[in-house]
Specification:
Blueprint lengths: L6 E5 L4 H12 L3 E6 L4 H9 L3 E6 L5 H15 L4 E4 L6 H7 L8 H29 L2 E6 L12 H21 L4 E8 L5 H4 L7 H8 L8 H12 L10 E4 L16
Parallel strand pairs: 1-2, 1-4, 2-3, 4-5, 5-6, 6-7
Helix pairs in contact: 1-2, 1-9, 3-5, 5-6
Length: 263
């Protein structure tokens, strides 16, 4: 699984899954454009310290201009984009506080931000990169969706709706551009130990209840999600497109009925 001569653009690369994907891609010979709203200088520095090639981009994906500027900077530096990983999502502390709500109480600002950053920005980046990949003769797009786009969670309806849309945007992109040798897949992580999830740790009992529900008995690591992304981005997945890969430690493999026997 090598990426020599190829270029990856990954959003939300300052930490978590995005950072793990960027460092893993670079370690396998590829060049990386790492984008984040607060910058991804730390990720770029880690890559260059390991003799890799990286460009750090500060990008506000809540604005169309920010999405387009990000693509332009990556193209100006590398002249091509072989892999796009749409991964970014986050919230300000104020929006995070208002995020937990049943459907009747969903805050308009939370809904708008969730759809803009988690869905519209994915579409805008994909739309801008597709002609680039067509000119190059192909490419791969990997989106970060979630098991929350496949099933419901209590109290985060805006997130559920957004991730469900990402999954189907992935599928329609795959169907429409398969003839151009462009593949599009998404990963559906479960509970992954990332900074975004750690914001929820303050809820009493959240960690213990989450881990207890996972057959694997632990949360996933960003590197484990990166391995799935890198496979989907690689030539090893040359016949894989339109797929939603679940990586959740077995969480969605069960019915939810309480376990009677446990080792």
């Amino acid at each position: 699984m090598r990426f020599d001569g190829k270029v990856l653009l990954v959003t939300g690369a300052g930490s978590g899954i995005g950072r793990a994907v960027a460092t893993g891609f670079a370690a396998r010979g590829g060049s990386v454009a790492v984008a984040d709203i607060t910058g991804a200088d730390g990720t770029a520095a880690e890559i260059t310290a390991a003799s890799g090639t990286a460009l750090a981009i500060t990008a506000d994906l809540a604005q169309r201009a920010g999405v387009e500027a990000m693509i332009d900077q990556a193209m100006d530096r590398f002249g091509r984009i072989d892999v796009l990983h749409n991964n970014a999502f986050g919230m300000s502390p104020d929006l995070q506080k208002a995020r937990l709500a049943r459907v009747a109480e969903i805050d308009d600002a939370v809904w708008a931000h969730t759809l803009q950053l988690g869905l519209t920005a994915v579409m805008q980046a994909t739309r801008r990169v597709l002609p680039v990949m067509q000119r190059q003769g192909g490419g791969a797009i990997v989106n970060t969706a979630s098991i929350s786009g496949m099933y419901a969670d209590f109290g985060i309806g805006s997130y559920n709706a957004m991730k469900a849309a990402v999954i189907n945007l992935t599928r329609v992109t795959a169907v429409e551009y398969a003839g151009d040798n462009i593949r599009c897949n998404c990963i559906c992580p479960g509970a992954i130990d990332t900074p975004m999830l750690q914001k929820s740790f303050a809820i009493p009992g959240f960690v213990d209840a989450t881990v207890a529900a996972i057959p694997a008995g632990r949360m996933g690591r960003p590197e484990e999600m990166a391995n799935v992304v890198l496979f989907l981005a690689s030539d090893l997945a040359s016949y894989v497109t339109g797929a939603a890969f679940v990586a959740d430690g077995g969480l969605t493999a069960k019915t939810g009925i309480p376990t009677r026997f446990r080792n």
